[in-house]
Design goal:
Largest sheet: 3 strands, mixed
CATH architecture: Orthogonal Bundle
Number of strands: 3
Order of helices and strands: HHHHHHEEHE
CATH class: Mainly Alpha
CATH superfamily: Winged helix-like DNA-binding domain superfamily/Winged helix DNA-binding domain
CATH topology: Arc Repressor Mutant, subunit A
Oligomer: single chain
Structural class: mainly alpha
Strand content: 5-15%
Strand order of the largest sheet: 2-1-3
Number of helices: 7
Distance between the termini: 47 Å
Helix content: 40-55%
Shape: elongated
Number of domains: 1
Length: 174
Amino acid sequence: MENGRSGGNGIQHRDFPGVSDPHVQQVVRAAHEELRQLMRQRADVMKRIGTVKQTIVGLANLFGDEILSEELLELVDRRSGGRQPGFTKACRIVLMESNHPLAARDVCEQIQKRLPPVLLRHKDPLASVTTVLNRLVDYGEARTVLRENGRRAWEWVSDPERSRLDSAEPEISA
């Protein structure tokens, strides 16, 4: 924290006791580092969850959903109960079951084919899908790739090691 920085109400932070105390600064630095470390761990866990979910979905695609328990069907968002999955779940399902990166328009089309009522609640489904896909990237569940035409596409993260490289160099895909 910088001395003299102003809060939203015009009060200078240097006016608060402890701001210049080195022990307080040490605690803040330690908490900051722990938070960064936990955020990295969360991203790694989310990527691993994505890999395991994709494996289970692949097995269900090969052998049928009946090999999965009700609990497992729900965990991989394939439960066929009366309630339609939410918008984010629908995007997850489409990405997870695709074997190649999809443009936002492709995800929209897949949702329209499989779960049309989900799109009815959205004024601009393409914008909503793009927003959700970008959030899935933030969560570490998906990654963005650049196609040869320069347009973005998204894919489910199934390889935690490769996903570490995604922010450094975008992939080129057809």
